[in-house]
Design brief:
The protein is α/β, with parallel strands linked by helices. Helix content is 39%, strand content 12%.
């Protein structure tokens, strides 16, 4: 049993090295691998092997610079000479992750490439800046379900023809949700599939087999039904500057059902 555990930890370390996750670990202020060791000591071999498969495609992006440069290049190439409005998603004065992307775009974009460019700091300012043929570019770091983007578009009565989304990471399910709401979607990373339901990161397991094993893992956690398999069952395996709640909660939930802590490797708080 101890030999199996040791071999699984060696496999996990190898996977994290080859996937690029290990290269990101210095950007965290705690020992992520030690948390995986703690988890692996609590769970059976099948669960450990599923986590290893999930980690093969786990994406960690803590430094946004190169991706925002790619987004800005895309904006300049596609909308040169246009009236452009760059906006994050505003939600009741809550500062959301997209605000940092908007802020950096403001620093990187060449204003002279556009007829005009505005960066409204709220929905009131957005409505003031809206003109008939303005190009609206919604920017974000991660789009999971697309629902918040849809709500923002509906709330501000933005036309599909003039509205575009640019995000560092986008889940494939969000692309389907937003098909009737935005004209184009751009991400400098490939669209992300659901980890289990799309057989994206479960190795040779069937979806049914992987879900049966995953359920055993998630049953260890104090997770509400709304966040089972990630928010709205997004099944993301992504950590940005903060881990989205769309990610499978075994990676971010800190509380077990028995009242003890769960050593979440990519916790949100």
């Amino acid at each position: 049993m101890e030999d199996d555990l040791a071999l699984d930890l060696v496999d996990l370390k190898s996977v994290m090295d080859s996937s690029g996750v290990s290269q990101q670990l210095s950007l965290f202020r705690y020992d992520i691998f030690a948390r995986f060791v703690d988890i692996f000591n609590r769970i059976d071999s099948e669960c450990r092997k599923l986590i290893i498969e999930l980690m093969k495609n786990y994406l960690v992006i803590k430094d946004y610079n190169k991706f925002i440069h790619l987004i800005c290049e895309r904006i300049e190439d596609k909308f040169a000479g246009e009236r452009v409005i760059i906006v994050p998603i505003f939600e009741n004065l809550v500062v959301k992750s997209g605000h940092s992307v908007s802020y950096d775009c403001r620093s990187y974009l060449f204003r002279e490439k556009f007829s005009s460019i505005d960066f409204p700091d709220g929905e009131t300012a957005l409505k003031v800046n809206l003109r008939g043929n303005s190009i609206i570019i919604i920017v974000d770091d991660f789009v999971g379900t697309g629902n918040q983007v849809n709500e923002f578009i509906e709330r501000n009565k933005l036309s599909r023809e003039n509205t575009h989304l640019m995000s560092i990471v986008v889940q494939e399910e969000a692309v389907k949700t937003l098909d009737l709401s935005v004209s184009t979607i751009f991400s400098p990373n490939p669209y992300r599939q659901r980890a289990i339901s799309d057989s994206y990161s479960i190795g040779n397991l069937s979806v049914a087999e992987a879900k049966k094993i995953y359920d055993r893992l998630e049953n260890e956690l104090d997770v509400s039904i709304f966040y089972s398999y990630g928010f709205m069952s997004s099944e993301a395996i992504v950590t940005m500057k903060r881990t989205p709640d769309n990610t499978l909660p075994i990676f971010w939930c800190e509380f077990g059902k028995d009242g003890t802590s769960w050593p979440a490797p990519f916790y949100r708080s």
